User: What shape does this take?
Amino acid sequence: MEDYLEAFAMYMASIREHSYNTVVSYKHDIARYLEFLKDNGIKTPAKADKMTVVTYLLQMKKSGKAPATISRSLAAIRAFYGYMIANGEKIKDPTASIAPPPIDKKQPEFLTASETEMLLNQPNPAQTKGIRDRAMLELLYATGIKVSEIIDLTTDDINLKQGFLRCQTATHERVVPIGRKAISAVRTYVDKARPKLVTHDSVKYLFLNRNGTKMSRQGFWKILKGYGKSAGIKKDITPYTIRHSFAMHLLQNGADLEAIRQLLGHTDISSTQVYSKIMDTRIKEVYEKSHPRA
Assistant: This one.
């Protein structure tokens, strides 16, 4: 079944134009599904039916997998059978009538302005690593871009003179403005730290690790969590925490939802409205605690 897996991954990347991270996740999910089929004596995914898929999903649930993980696996399996049908397999999609499990949506975690300031001040400006890390944190908070977008940035994607960066994916591109503090931090990194990290002129990625190669997602997550701990912040800090903080602080200071949607790169305004709902909830809480007749 290995041939199915590699062909599916290629289809997702080239034909469906999914991001690298989505392709990797779906490939991992399908590898586990194919292993399940093999263990149950099903020699080809074309022989699986609805009950097969339901049994697999129930097995995931019994093993303690979160609803979000199960839902993603179902989406991957559905995409996999879509690939098979698109490539001429005369089969009926066994996932067609299977609904994903309900997912409890958690409110986005975000930092206060003072917590953000403490986090941004953690990197040591006297060290090459500290200069790089300060530039990454400042840029992440100034733009709200995703971790995958910041590590994919090249030196050609950022214009410090005019104050903007360009985020590109397989399907669209957006231009995001950069604040003066982030511009200053990135300029210091480019002038003083990056030349010490780069090992070859052909390396165009903006942010590099100590080996002179592209920063990894895991590497950046580790850096961020380390600074969160040293700042004494009790919240679980991830790159998405910074992205949510960017959006919430804009909203708190009067930005409209449509502008925030465009900056975040959301295709649907409903994805952005969650920040407005959080704001409404907090205003109500403040009113009920503070007003003498509430």
Q: What stands out?
A: The two ends are 64 Å apart (CA to CA). The first strand starts at residue 158 and ends at 159. The chain has a mean pLDDT of 88.
